[in-house]
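It is worth pausing here to work through a concrete case rather than discussing structure prediction in the abstract. The textbook approach is simple: state the sequence, then state the predicted structure, then interpret. We follow exactly that order.
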Amino acid sequence: MKVDVNDQEKAIEEPKRRNPSRVRDHLANERTYLAWMRTGIALMGFGVVIVRLRAFQPPLLPRPGTGWKLGLIFSLVGLVTVLLSTQHYFAVRRDIDEDTYEPADRWVIFFSIIVTLLGTGVIYFVFTAPLSPMSSVVFE
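Step two, the predicted structure:
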């Protein structure tokens, strides 16, 4: 079998074909990134709300309570969500450009576990917080 040198040169000179849905993939990546950003901002806002609700309630216990810790955890998880989603966005962007993108389950599993733990903490906190006759629920 004889190989034509001109065919080899043409193959080398031809740019690699890009994914025809590349633009659509980039737009989907950006929408996903923005959804993660909204989630992070919401988590931080919820953390601030938890901490601020304590300021509007009369103290029932002489100690400061643990509500501020729950609010701080929500705020920190929100901040980490923003940072990790930014890193993930640029990694996916690079993979789309190189046409090597493979979805990773680890982020979905990781954030599902974190949000489940936070939700469990909120449920526990709400049902174990002492009730005041002046309000329905008190966040310590």
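Step three, interpretation. DSSP finds four helices and no strands in the chain. Residues 135-140 have pLDDT under 50 and may be disordered.
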